[in-house]
Amino acid sequence: MNAQFKKGVLELCVLVLTANRDRYGYELVASISEKFHISEGSVYPLLRRLTQEGMFTTYLAESQEGPPRKYYQLTERGRMYMNDLILEWHVFSRGVNRIIEEGLGYDEA
User: Fold this and answer.
1) 109 pLDDT exceeds 70?
2) What is the rounded distance in angstroms from the CA atom of residue 6 to the CA atom of residue 2?
3) Which residues fall in a coiled-coil region (predicted)?
């Protein structure tokens, strides 16, 4: 998959995956990688930036499988930002789909 496509939606994916429950970094990487391949190194800088911008708070929790894990919890500010991005995504994706349909003549049938 085109790297620019992935880069453009990674932030939205991370925000949405943390909307209903707190997640740790590797869990986010694994969840996203089930849908499309990403490198582990692309998520951690994004999480750091979003945390610095107030979209997440973090806390450590013990793990049965090793050292404590840093969990990311979506803040109210992060939730509002996520909702804005979702609206933008819907407008954007509908527009791109219409262009594809028009460009390839799908709407002429």
Assistant:
1) no
2) 7
3) none
| Position 19 in a domain | yes
Domain presence at residue 99:
yes
Residue 29 lies in a domain: yes
d(CA 26, CA 86): 23
CA distance 5 to 2: 5
Nearby residues of 98 by Cβ (< 8 Å), 6 or more positions away: none
Q: What pLDDT digit, counting tens, does each position of 67-92 carry? A: 999 999 999 999 999 999 999 999 99
CA distances (Å), origin 55, targets 11, 35, 52, 61, 92: 11, 24, 8, 19, 23
Interval 38-59: pLDDT, tens: 888 899 999 999 999 999 999 9
Domain interval for residue 30: 3-104
Flag whether 109 is in a domain. no
